[in-house]
Write a structure and sequence with these properties.
Elements: E1 14-18, H1 21-31, E2 35-40, E3 45-50, E4 56-62
Length: 64
Amino acid sequence: MSEQNKTVGTVGWVDLTVDDAEGLRDFYSAVVGWEPEGLSMGDYDDYSMKAEGGAAVAGVCHAR
């Protein structure tokens, strides 16, 4: 775990595998303020979600 994620109450990492990855990506962007970064899976993207400060805190993946 990075030094950035050792603060109490800070998300360390969560992977979410869902049917609607784009919808969940957009939800967390709007509600929590996380910025998505696409990760190519060949013919589609999964997403790394970054918190304020640029720390990656979650993965949003397509259920395939």
